[in-house]
Amino acid sequence: MMEILEAKETSTVEKQDARYERPEWGNKTEYILTMVGYVVGIGNIWRFPYLCQTYGGGAFLIPYFIALFVEGFPVFFLELAIAQKLRKGSIGVWSSIHPYLTGIGYSSLVLSFFLCLYFSVIITWITWYLLHSFEYPMPWGFCPLNENDTEYLAECRLSSPVNYFWYRKTLDISTNINEGGTVKWWLLICHIFVWSVIYCCTIRGIESTGKVVYITTPIPYIILFCFLVQGLTLEGSTDGLRYLFTPDMTQLQNPKVWMDAATQIFFSVGLGFGAVVAFSSYNNIHNNCEGDALFLSLVNSLTSVFIAIPVFSVLGFMATITFNECLDRNVQALMNEFDVTEGIITRDNYEDQLNFYNASFPKRILDLKLATCDLSELLNTAVSGTGLIFIVFTEAINNMPVPQLWSILFFVMLFSVGLSSMFGNLEGVLTPLTDLGVFPKSMSKEMVQGMVCLLFMLISMIFITAPGNYWLTIFNDYVCSVPLLFTCFLEIISVMYIYGYKRFREDLEFMLKRKPNPVWIVMWGFISPAVICIILVAYIIVESQNTLEYEAWDPSNPEFPDKLMLEYPTWVVAILSLLSALPCACVPGIAIYKWITSRYQKDKNEVQDIVIGDISVVYNPNNDNDATADNDRMGFPQHPILFQNITYKPGANEF
Predict the structure, then answer these.
(1) Helices 28-39 and 403-436 meet at what angle, rounded to 10?
(2) What is the Cα–Cα distance from 130 to 193, expressed in whole angstroms?
(3) CB under 8 Å to 354, separation ≥6 — which residues?
(4) How far apart are CA 643 and CA 620, in angstroms?
(5) How many secondary structure helices (H) and strands (E) does the chain include?
(6) Which of 38, 315, 319, 436 would be 378's cystine partner, CB 3.0–4.6 Å?
(7) Residue pair 201/183 in contact by the 8 Å Cβ criterion
């Protein structure tokens, strides 16, 4: 079993041995900007506003911020601290605590691998829309004509221009997940471009990423402020903001509100994926990780609230447009039916006029089949994910002045946010693989980065086929949810009850140069793992009661443009289950493998490898004079307990 050194002793050895070459951040600003870019992702834009809209506006903020203090702060601080102390990636950290815990690191690695695959495709779609934002008129602002130029295409006419551009011109989507399809060449070009940009930005690891974030992290905030100013000037924006900040307290009685608030914290901050561990492992041993955890968690959550303001302004704007169009159709129908002069019936007096005619001619009014125009109902219609970004927002931009400008700004913002998040996702894969020594030392960073990016690009091409959007939905909704909660739960248990809370507290005192607040120990030891366990069990129970269905876009559907609700085929459910179970299976699987291999090792008296930082040394219980001589030669202090019977082993690896 591997021996872990105390924090002070690790620091001493690292300074005395010139072979220790763990990369470090150029400065604290690079680290903070990189972390902000990672924790503030596309989910803050398309997921948080949806949850607020679904669960009573401001009422959702109550369980959200409670979950932040109970889960977000503690788990984030724990990941930052343990990585900063052990200075390793996700696999190295947990294997250092105990070899049987190595599977936790592999679980994070698999989760980051899955996330990199489908997240890059979202950036591909964003790139496609960004390119078309320079066109006049906007391509999602009108319906194309048929081959004979006699009428608009039926699929577009029956749905809308924004729906047609998204589902047909962008995705060219199949009618169900069973249908095959080739890779869409226009998306492939954008996909290659996206991965080329990612490669160039991460070519030297944190050395290059730390410079790029000076651009990619501030840009979204600047553009968001522009959208905030523009959104507040739109008609109906006040209705959207009133809906956001008027809490429906009855929603707090719904258990699902609390469950969704808790899971949103994990996905939003990016816990359990290994990226936080990877980035923190490059910090100085005395970095104030406690302050970083509090600051970054608050930045993430406050950014979500800040983003919700322009989003709800736009939603109020779109609801008002739809409401007015509904009123206009009804007004026109009344005027035609009763041969009323133009201007007699208006939006303002529509309700009074309707009541008057309904009292006098109820049958004629009934035969008109007037639509019910309800602004509150329109505001209640929640939209999330790609529907919010590529349909609702693009339609709103069509109705703004100078739509090309706002479209360019919007998709540049999304591209920057997505790119910054990808830096963390990719680091969650590369750092543990590098620590494991998977890549030969003779291979340059540029070559390693290129091989990994190429592999991701090739595999993720499955998402740019005709049924690709259906598969991306599976990865986004199901594959990472349960494994992520499971991984975070094991992380806390491993640190507090295997590594030891006393030892961890001493490490924190050494790193922070002061005693940590006792509240953290209480949260890590009892409250946070209990809450995560309850959420995990509740999530599994709720999801097991739901039928696994997906929305299919089928123009031949009699109720088109309404989407068909189809059940996933058995073979898809099998793949879904396998992918969800794979990260979780890493934990017991690796533990069993470690146990089996340990049974075949030699006696305890044989020479053992001990890892000190990135240095490997050999432990020999049968001490001789040569060991002391080697220690002197390598500059190891003659520690009465730690360095007794230890000699340097050049080129040794941890595994």
Answers:
(1) 110
(2) 13
(3) 330, 334, 365, 370
(4) 11
(5) 31, 5
(6) 319
(7) no
Q: Are 160 and 395 in contact, with CB atoms under 8 Å apart?
A: yes
On whether residue 655 sits in a domain, the answer given is: no
Contact 107/368 with Cβ under 8 angstroms?
A: no
Q: Tell me, yes or no, whether 484 and 631 share the same domain.
A: no
Residues 395 and 251 in one domain: yes
Q: What does the CA dihedral 353, 357, 360, 366 come to, rounded to 10 degrees? A: -140
Q: How far apart are CA 437 and CA 89, in angstroms?
A: 12
Query: pTM, whole model, 2 decimals?
Result: 0.85
Contact 480, 114 (CB under 8 A): yes
For residue 53, give the amino acid letter. Q
Give the C-alpha separation, 99 to 91, whole Å.
10
Does position 166 have pLDDT exceeding 70, yes or no? yes
Write the single-letter amino acid at 442.
S
Asked if 287 contacts 11 with a C-beta cutoff of 8 angstroms, the reply is no
Average pLDDT over residues 316-334: 91
What residue type is assigned to position 333 of the chain? A
Tell me how many domains the chain contains.
3
* Shared domain check, 177 and 78: yes
Which candidate, 183, 143, 193, 137, places its Cα nearest to that of 163? 143
> Residue 357: what are its φ and ψ, rounded to 5°?
-70, -30
Sheet containing 646-648, strands listed edge to edge, beginning at the edge strand earlier in sequence: 608-612, 615-619, 646-648
Same structural domain, 296 and 420: yes
- Band (pLDDT 50/70/90 cuts) for residue 21 is low
Per-residue HEC secondary structure of 72-108 comes to HHHHHHHHHHHHHHHCCCHHHHHHHHCHHHHHHHHHH
Q: What is the pLDDT of residues 182-231, one digit of tens each?
A: 899 999 999 999 999 999 998 887 888 888 999 999 999 999 999 999 99
Find where tokens 């004629």 sit.
364
Of the given ranges (49-53, 105-109, 512-516, 517-521), which has the lowest mean pLDDT?
49-53
DSSP letters for 10-30: HHHHHHH-TT------SSHHH
311 plus 353 within the same structural domain? no
Tokens of 35: 């972390």
1 occurs within a structural domain = no
Q: How far is CA 323 from CA 311, 383, 397, in A?
A: 18, 17, 17
Give the integer Cα–Cα distance in Å for 38 and 89. Answer: 16
Instruction: Find, among 488, 525, 489, 490, the residue nearest to 505 by Cα.
Output: 525
Query: Do 366 and 281 reside in the same domain of the chain?
Result: no
CA 319 to chain centroid:
28
Residues in Cβ contact with 252 at an 8 Å cutoff, skipping those fewer than 6 apart: 56, 59, 62, 63
- The HSE-up count of residue 225 (CA atoms within 13 Å, CB side) is 4
Q: HSE, CB side, 13 Å, CA atoms: give it for residue 178.
A: 6
| 376 and 456 assigned to the same domain | no
Domain containing 612 equals 608-648
Residue where one domain finishes, among candidates 599, 620, 637: 599
Residue 398 CA: distances (Å) to CA of 42, 136, 144, 318, 623: 22, 11, 16, 11, 78
Burial 27-42 (b: 16+ CB within 10 A, else e): eeebbbbbbbbbbbbb
What phi and psi, each to the nearest 5 degrees, are found at residue 608?
Answer: -125, 150
Same domain? 336 vs 444: no
